[in-house]
Amino acid sequence: DASKLKDLYLDGNKLTGKVPADLCRPEINEDFFASVSDDEDRNYCDSIACPVNTAAFEGVFPCSPCESDFYNPYLGRYGECIDLNERDILKKFYEITSMSNSWKGEVNWDDDTLSTCDYTGITCDSNDHVIGIELSDRGLTGTLIDEIGFLEYLQVLDLSDNELQGFVPSDLRWAPLKKLDISGNKLKGIVPPALCLKQDVNGNGEGGDYNCERFACPVGTYSTTGWYNGGSSKCKPCDGALPYLGQKTCSPYSMPHVTNREKGQDLGPIFVGITAFVVASLSILLFSLVSSMRKRREGSKLLPQSEIESHEFQPNTIGVSDLPGSENQALTRHWEIGD
Questions:
Q1: Which structural domain, as residue segments, surrounds residue 172?
Q2: Where residue 195 sits, what CATH number does that domain have?
Q3: Closest by Cα among 93, 83, 25 to 55
Q4: Rounded to whole angstroms, what are the CA distances from 56 to 39, 165, 190, 286?
Q5: What pTM did the predictor assign?
Q6: Whether residue 107 sits in one domain with residue 203
Q7: Domain-ending residue, one of 219, 248, 274
Q8: Transmembrane region positions (predicted)?
């Protein structure tokens, strides 16, 4: 029973519409306006959540209207309204997806002297509005930013076969998309339900059929396109699939940009096995060397005393004059065993 509510806060979510008028009563959050003077306007709905197209530090009273070129479709938004400037959105997208300088091929998004319509992969209409972003297999990393969904004229977004991570932003529902391809990345989770209800994207909603697989095959499945296009490319189950949306193959080994750990290969046991093999090999080699030395010692015998006595010892006299620098040295005799 809502009439018994004493405290209610809806800020910080992605709720749209309005706070129901019957909830905007002085009894709800009654201490909220305690410090507000009697001659100041009080909108009791603002104590629950700031209205659409406004924002506040904590998402509740006092609420400030969005400035020109800014917008907010949600109740109780924290901080600032959303910047709708196309260049600002594209710049942020570039910064987030190229932190490791990973973009491949020609890249000119960092050139502030260019029009956004001249950026690599950008298509504009006759009024210079961005209507297409096509950056398939360009080495994009990082995450998909929410602001992409606030490009007011965007119809085509193709970011397939990159290394984008994170989750699919539900804010993509705000763009007037006709084509969306996010397959072949490392996106997790699910396609947001609000996006699944968006009509005309990849044929979604035709004949009343709304299907999340029109956007990306769910985790644990795959298709040749990474999404269901209404034809033969249906999303099929795959026991060995990677934990990502929009996979195009059931075999992780055919994907060059995934790591061994992502393929299910834990390198720890491999390193342990290699180390054990090296240690065992060295142990065998050391044992062989020690055994060989022992055999050599056992095979080498001293001459018996009888053999030594039978040898003829011949004196080898060396004159003092034969030794360099030994004029004052005593005569030295050296003995050697004769043959």
A1: 84-219
A2: 3.80.10.10
A3: 83
A4: 22, 30, 30, 75
A5: 0.73
A6: yes
A7: 219
A8: 270-290
Strands (E), the chain: 54-55, 64-65, 70-71, 82-83, 122-124, 130-134, 156-158, 165-167, 179-181, 186-188, 221-222, 236-237, 313-318, 332-337
88 and 195 both lie in a single domain: yes
User: Which residue among 176, 197, 219 closes a domain?
Assistant: 219
Residue carrying structure tokens 């305690």: 34
**Residue type at position 101:** N
- Answer yes or no: do 58 and 113 share one domain: no
**Together in a domain, 90 and 180:** yes
Residues 6+ apart with CB under 8 A from 100: 141
CA 62/CA 18 separation, integer angstroms: 17
Q: 184 is written with which tokens?
A: 């072949």
Could you give the CA distance from residue 226 to residue 137 in angstroms, rounded to a whole number?
14
Same domain, residue pair 104 and 66 = no
Enclosing H/E stretch for 19: none
* pLDDT tens-digit profile, the chain (339 residues): 677 888 999 999 999 999 999 999 888 988 888 888 877 778 899 999 999 999 999 999 999 999 999 999 999 999 999 999 999 999 999 999 998 788 998 889 999 999 999 999 999 999 999 999 999 999 999 999 999 999 999 999 999 999 999 999 999 999 999 999 999 999 999 999 999 999 999 999 998 999 999 999 999 999 999 999 877 789 999 987 779 999 999 876 555 455 555 444 444 555 455 666 666 667 677 666 666 666 555 554 444 555 545 545 444 444 444 444 444 444 344 434 444
Q: What is the dihedral of CA 86, 92, 93, 94, to 10 degrees?
A: 110
Instruction: Take residue 312 and report the two structure tokens written for it.
Output: 């003829």
